[in-house]
Every structure is written in structure tokens, then in C-alpha cells.
């Protein structure tokens, strides 16, 4: 095989054994790689009904065939498992340098099975697999963990890349993330808790395998041409200069910036949270993942005061969920809270959504100081945001309740209407009443609401991929479905989604052809994404997905937006959801039909 390493490493944590299997070539062609192949492994080898925090759950680290190659933005690796937060498929995607190190070690997928009897980290160096005691790392934050592991391993001449959990993952917080390269997060779905449940503190990888592609000359030539596209693209220039939070002012003006637990869609202090302000106040230098010409990462530093610290970010989602959605216009507090989430291993989206839920419940009298341990949960309190993040990471006092997410919080105190999420996972930073395509994506995403699993904002708000009225519902079912299929295939290649700023599907197909020698047509490529999406749907149905839960909170259907350019807007979506399900080829129970599954080569997975 070319492009693919052709190897799956299987690690049994219970018995501390390992073996290597060959990656089936037909499976690689049908699912490309990454979460595509990983989903097939889960479906074929694991009962979707397993307890996500049991030893029976599998945790799969994966790359795509373009990860770690000369292809621009080929940095991504993925972690696939059953989510303890949603009870459905769980998936996290991260950049940095860990994914390319996996490729250098020679593995497309690393499948962790069982549970270690004590804390452990696994060192993977080509074919040398070592189980290392992690007792001295348990309780350490992600920064300390990476520093210690690198010192322990690099003294012997190895340069490793580390993916690890912090205290939140160790304590199995359901909103725990997995961190790599200190500042990069595979964050959503509580996958950090799965890693913690297995007593797996970290995975360290290194290797000397050289790039093995079908046509290295063509791949290099294409990559050079495509890098020039990035240099000439004005959208890329904006992301390079201001990072992802450079969109804060635009989204605020368009009325899609979540504010005070999605009670409003514009924030009076939005400018204080913008990428422009971050650049002026705290930016030290741009940070780039492996092979990235965009460099949207923000190397930041707060030099003095109570929020003093240094790290990377915050990115847009963090600014929106820990900033405007908490009524918090203090960028220093948001930045400090972001540093802490990275160190403690916490998903910033779920943390912000959970805290916002608690603040609204307190504001409405559903929570008292007796419930919170004497804390007044008031919107706009930057100091409180930082404090609550620390409490979540350590599971201390009221933080122990917050650590399991907003759904359980709202359910515990009898007010589920205050939880802004779908399938028990918090909504990211786009108000669906002001960008209705995102509403369909949130409802139908196979991992729970995610901005990365069918992003309609380029069509509705930025108008870089189309020019659709954001509050008009017609056509949004088709756009969401198409975006989901494209994303599934794109992710599986190992390319960052920001490559879409300058590249199209035809460009990715040409890169894949040069890397693997396998030709993909335009619709064949989208068909692979559709295949992955439908297999993930089947996993969720077997895991216990309830169709009646496939909806947004009532707020979005019944409470008109009170402010901004979309004032008065509500969701309906009945017609467009029907369009969506019909386009998917699903029956009236929203289950993929036998005909659809067979047409996608998934006939063995018929319900």
C-alpha cells in the first residue's frame, strides 16, 4: 500500500500485550482512513451498547493517508470511541504534530482495548512498544505530563510527540478532553474520560519511517502549487492575522454570537473579545500545526495581574462559549480560563455551555447558593469563570456537578429547558435561529452538535461558498447533508478543514491520487463521506439513539430572538428536516433503508 502505512497496532491494556494487523486495502479505499476506518472497527468488533467507561469500550487513535505528508495542512489525527457524554459515537479531531509522528512510527490506527490495572503510558517507537508506569504522572496537568515524558524518553535519543489527559480525564469528567502538543485538543464527546477509565495517562509516539507515497514528485508539485493558493487567498490572510476569533465581530453583527446561554445573539462587549483585540493585547507569535501555511494558532501571554499566564489561544469557540455566552467580556479572563482548560484537559465548548446553563438556572432562581456551595453564579463575572474551570478540573465542590456537563446539571435540578444542547452535548458557538443550516447540522450530527461535522456558515454568513439567506430555511437540509458528507470524507484524509479556505474537492482528490495511487471521482469522494456518515448512524441506532431526542432545545423553536438583525427569528425546520431525511434515503423512522445501505456497500449493517 502507498499513502497508507498499512498497519493497525492493537494494544491490550489489560494484559499489556500488543500485536500488529494489516489494514485491509479494500477497507482503506472504501473509508479512506481516520474516523472512517475507525468507525468500521468499532462496528465490527464491539457491541455499540457497551458502557463507554468500561473496559469493553475501544479507544482508537487514527490518521489519514495525507497526515504527515508534504500536503498542506496534513496534520490531523482523530480519536474515535463510544462517548460517555452522549452514549453515541464519540469523535475528536486534533492538529499539531502528534498525527505526523504516528505516521512516522508506521501506523494508520492504534486500537486501545481493555483497562490497565494501574496508571500507564504507552511509548511507541516504530515496532518497539513499551508500557511505562505513569503513577508519577497521575494528578499532573497536561503540560507537566508532556514535559516529563519527553524528558524521560528523549534522554535516550528519542524525540516523541505526546497525547495525554489531565486531571479532568483521570477523574472521568464527562467533558474531559485529550490534549497533544500541550495546546491542541481532541476535545468533544468526553473522550478524555474514556482514556481515564482505562488508566491510560498518555500515548507517546516516535519513529523513523519515511514517507512512502505512490508519486512523490507529483505530490510535491501539487503541494507547492496549493501552498501558493493559500498565500493568495484573502480569507487565509485574515485567519493568519487574527486567528479564528477574527470572526467575532462579523458573527456579532450578523446576530449569531451566542450570548448569556443563547438567550441573546449579540453581545455588547463583542469587540473586547475579538481577534483584533487579542492581537493587540496578548499575541506573542502565530503558531502553526505541521505543514500549515495558515498558522491560525495564537501564541499568547498575559504578563501581569491575576490572570498572568502563557499558552496558546483562545480560539473562536472558546471566546464564544467562555466569553459572550457567559456574558463575560473580559478577554484576559477568557484567555486564562482557556489556558486552564488546556492544562486540566477540558473541552472549552462543553465547559462554557455547562457554566452558562448553571448561570441561567441561578439567574432564574432554580439554583441557590446552598446548591452551589455559596457561589453566586452571575453572568459577566470573569473571575468566577476562571474559578469554575479550576473546580471542574479537580471535581471539587460544585465543580463536581459541572464536570459531567449541562444535561445532567439541568436534569438534576429539574430544569432541562436551560440546557442548550442535543444528545446531552453542548451546542458550539453559532446561534441556530440566525444560521438555520447549523440547526439541522446540530440535530443530525452523528456525534452530537458540532460545528466541524457539517459547517454551513460559509454558505449562510461568510458567503465564501455560497450566498444563502441565513434565516431562510429552504435549501438548508440539502446544504447540511452535503456539508456533512464532504466533511466526513475530508476528515478521513487527514487534512485540516481549514484547507477548504483555498482548496476544493478536486484538489484533495488529486492529492489523494498522488499519495495513494487510488483514483477517486468527485461524486465517489462524496459517496465515501456518505458511507462513513451512514455507518456512524447505524452505530448510534444500535447504541440506543432515540429519534425523539433528535431535536434542539425548545428555546430555539418557541422563543424569538430578542435582539440583533435576526430579531424575531425562530426555528421551524419541519419541512427541511423532511427534505434532509429524504435526501439521506432514510425511512420514516429515520433509519437508513436497506436499499441505501446496500448501495453504499453497507449491506452487512442493515438494522
Summarize the structure.
This protein is α+β, with helices and mostly antiparallel strands. The chain contains 25 helices and 17 strands.
Describe the structure.
The structure is a single chain. This protein is globular. Helix 20 crosses helix 24 (574-584). The chain has a six-stranded mixed beta sheet with strand order 2-1-6-3-4-5, with helices on both faces. 40% of the residues lie in helices and 14% in strands. With 607 residues, it is an alpha+beta fold. It has 25 helices and 17 strands. A hairpin with a 6-residue loop joins strand 14 and strand 15 (309-312). It folds into three domains: 7-206, 4-Layer Sandwich (Aldehyde Ferredoxin Oxidoreductase,  A, domain 1); 243-426, Aldehyde Ferredoxin Oxidoreductase Protein, subunit A, domain 2 (Orthogonal Bundle); 436-501 and 521-605, Aldehyde Ferredoxin Oxidoreductase Protein, subunit A, domain 3, CATH 1.10.599. The model has no long low-confidence stretch (mean pLDDT 95).
Number of E strands:
17
Radius of gyration, in Å, reads 22 Å
What is the CATH superfamily of the largest domain?
A: Aldehyde ferredoxin oxidoreductase, N-terminal domain
CATH topology of the largest domain: Aldehyde Ferredoxin Oxidoreductase,  A, domain 1
Main beta sheet, described? Answer: 6 strands, mixed
Silhouette:
globular
Overall mean confidence score, pLDDT: 95
- Hey, roughly how much beta strand do the residues contain? 5-15%
Question: How many structural domains?
Answer: 3
* Alpha-carbon distance between the two ends: 33 Å
Which CATH first-tier class of the largest domain would you pick?
Answer: Alpha Beta
Amino acid at each position: 500500500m502507498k499513502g497508507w502505512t498499512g498497519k493497525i497496532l492493537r494494544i491490550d491494556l489489560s494484559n499489556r500485550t500488543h500485536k500488529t494487523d494489516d489494514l485491509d486495502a479494500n477497507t482503506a479505499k472504501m473509508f479512506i482512513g481516520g474516523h472512517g476506518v475507525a468507525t468500521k472497527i468499532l462496528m465490527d468488533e464491539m457491541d455499540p451498547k457497551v458502557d463507554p467507561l468500561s473496559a469493553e469500550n475501544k479507544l482508537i487513535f487514527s490518521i489519514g493517508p495525507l497526515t504527515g505528508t508534504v500536503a498542506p495542512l496534513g496534520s490531523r489525527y482523530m480519536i474515535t470511541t463510544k462517548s460517555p457524554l452522549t452514549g453515541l459515537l464519540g469523535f475528536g479531531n486534533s492538529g499539531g504534530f502528534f498525527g505526523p509522528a504516528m505516521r512516522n512510527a508506521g501506523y494508520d490506527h492504534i486500537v486501545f482495548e481493555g483497562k490497565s490495572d494501574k496508571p500507564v503510558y504507552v511509548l511507541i517507537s516504530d515496532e518497539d512498544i513499551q508500557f511505562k508506569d505513569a503513577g508519577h504522572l497521575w494528578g499532573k496537568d497536561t503540560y507537566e505530563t508532556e514535559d516529563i515524558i519527553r524528558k524521560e524518553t528523549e534522554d535516550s535519543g528519542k524525540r516523541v510527540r505526546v497525547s495525554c489527559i489531565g486531571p479532568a480525564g483521570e477523574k472521568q469528567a464527562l467533558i474531559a478532553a485529550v490534549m497533544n502538543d500541550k495546546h491542541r485538543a481532541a476535545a468533544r464527546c468526553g473522550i478524555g474520560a474514556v482514556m481515564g477509565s482505562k488508566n491510560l495517562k498518555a500515548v507517546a509516539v516516535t519513529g523513523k519511517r519515511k514517507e512512502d507515497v505512490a508519486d512523490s514528485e507529483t505530490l510535491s508539485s501539487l503541494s507547492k502549487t496549493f501552498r501558493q493558493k493559500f498565500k493568495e487567498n484573502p480569507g487565509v490572510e485574515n485567519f493568519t492575522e487574527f486567528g479564528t476569533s477574527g470572526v467575532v465581530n462579523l458573527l456579532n453583527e450578523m446576530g449569531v454570537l451566542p450570548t448569556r446561554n443563547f438567550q441573546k445573539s449579540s453581545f455588547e462587549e463583542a469587540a473586547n473579545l475579538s481577534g483584533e483585540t487579542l492581537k493587540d493585547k496578548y499575541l506573542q507569535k502565530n503558531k502553526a500545526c505541521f505543514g500549515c501555511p495558515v498558522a491560525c494558532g495564537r501564541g499568547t501571554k498575559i504578563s501581569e495581574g491575576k490572570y498572568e499566564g502563557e499558552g496558546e489561544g483562545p480560539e473562536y469557540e472558546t471566546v464564544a462559549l467562555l466569553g459572550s455566552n457567559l456574558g463575560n467580556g473580559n478577554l484576559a479572563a477568557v484567555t486564562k480560563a482557556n489556558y486552564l482548560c488546556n492544562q486540566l484537559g477540558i473541552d472549552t465548548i462543553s465547559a462554557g455551555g455547562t457554566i452558562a446553563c448553571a448561570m441561567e438556572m441561578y439567574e432564574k432562581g432554580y439554583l441557590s447558593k446552598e446548591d452551589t456551595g455559596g457561589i453566586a453564579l452571575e453572568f459577566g463575572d470573569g473571575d468566577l469563570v476562571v474559578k469554575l474551570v479550576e473546580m471542574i478540573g479537580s471535581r471539587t465542590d460544585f465543580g463536581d456537578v459541572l464536570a459531567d456537563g449541562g444535561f445532567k446539571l439541568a436534569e438534576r435540578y429539574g430544569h432541562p429547558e436551560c440546557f442548550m444542547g442535543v444528545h446531552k452535548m453542548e451546542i458550539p458557538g453559532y446561534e441556530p435561529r440566525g444560521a438555520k443550516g447549523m440547526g439541522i447540522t446540530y440535530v443530525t450530527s452523528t456525534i452530537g452538535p458540532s460545528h466541524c461535522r457539517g459547517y454551513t456558515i460559509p454558505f449562510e454568513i461568510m458567503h465564501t461558498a455560497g450566498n444563502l439567506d441565513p434565516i431562510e430555511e429552504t435549501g438548508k437540509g440539502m446544504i447540511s447533508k452535503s456539508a456533512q458528507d464532504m466533511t466526513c470524507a475530508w476528515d478521513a484524509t487527514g487534512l485540516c478543514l481549514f484547507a477548504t479556505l483555498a482548496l476544493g474537492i478536486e484538489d484533495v482528490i488529486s492529492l489523494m491520487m498522488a499519495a495513494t495511487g487510488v483514483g477517486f471521482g468527485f461524486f465517489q469522494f462524496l459517496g465515501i463521506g456518505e458511507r462513513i456518515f451512514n455507518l456512524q448512524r447505524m452505530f448510534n441506532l444500535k447504541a440506543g439513539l432515540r429519534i425523539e431526542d433528535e431535536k434542539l432545545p425548545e428555546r430555539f423553536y418557541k422563543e424569538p430572538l430578542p435582539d440583533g438583525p435576526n430579531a424575531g427569528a425562530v426555528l421551524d425546520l419541519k419541512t427541511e428536516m423532511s427534505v434532509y431525511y429524504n435526501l439521506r434515503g432514510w425511512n420514516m423512522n429515520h433509519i437508513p433503508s436497506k436499499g441505501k445501505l446496500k448501495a453504499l456497500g453497507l449491506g452487512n449493517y442493515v438494522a
